[in-house]
From TrEMBL:
A Gene Ontology biological process term: monoatomic ion transmembrane transport
PANTHER family named among the record's database cross-references: POTASSIUM VOLTAGE-GATED CHANNEL PROTEIN SHAB, VOLTAGE-GATED POTASSIUM CHANNEL
Keywords on record: Ion channel, Ion transport, Membrane, Transmembrane, Transmembrane helix, Transport
Descriptive protein name: Potassium channel family protein
Top-level taxonomy: Bacteria, Bacillati, Actinomycetota, Actinomycetes, Pseudonocardiales
Native organism: Actinomycetospora rhizophila
Amino acid sequence: MEPDHEPRLEAWERRTDYALTGLAVLYLVVYAVQVLATRPGQAWWWWLDAALWTAWAVFVVDYAVRISLARRKLRFIVRHPLDLLVVAAPFFRFLRLLRLVAAISVLGRVLRDDFRGRVGSYLIVSISLLSVVAALGVFEAERDAPEASILTFGDALWWVLTTITTVGYGDLSPVTTEGRLVAAGLMLAGIAVLGTVTAAIATWFLEQVGARDASEALAAAPRADPADLRHAELLAELRDLRRRLDVLESAPDRPTESAPG
């Protein structure tokens, strides 16, 4: 058995991928409603918070099961640091948003193995989730802070756009510790996203150039064969003519045969 092969863990992940993805998306919706439509202390806020805690509990159970199924548990923990942060998130207020990283990791597992499909789909899903989560997080952290400049969800989305693209106009910036931690993570993610996009575009151009060269070579191949054949025929004809000339040149030197008497 290969050292990296985890049959029981892989079987569990295949059975739970789609369910966890749906739960993560539901978590995002509930969290968005809680941030945008309620305030702490309101009745609906408590109900929504209870739903978020329930979803987090499911993620904890999934993480615990995956550790128990892993043959090399320490290696599993080291290789899945974001999953550990997802579990520890409620104990650190600014990390609770990382529970949504589960959605990205699960979607990465269910995407096709095709390189283009994996990169393109994963990139779109990752940027979308990252942008929405960061906007919700910074808006929640900044909206009631003194001297805050991010006062609406629209401001938060604009701030996310300028930050993740590394433009950084500076017209909006977080002033709270939680908001700045979200900004730091978004900046690092923005660099990673730009690197991935650049690599994907470069790969696409190389594939296009390679495909064009291959098509040109394929189109030229049928024309090359008749030319080669004609060249060979001409060489054969030249050799035949040379042989005939040699015969004619040597004919006078031959002795004349006498006629019968």
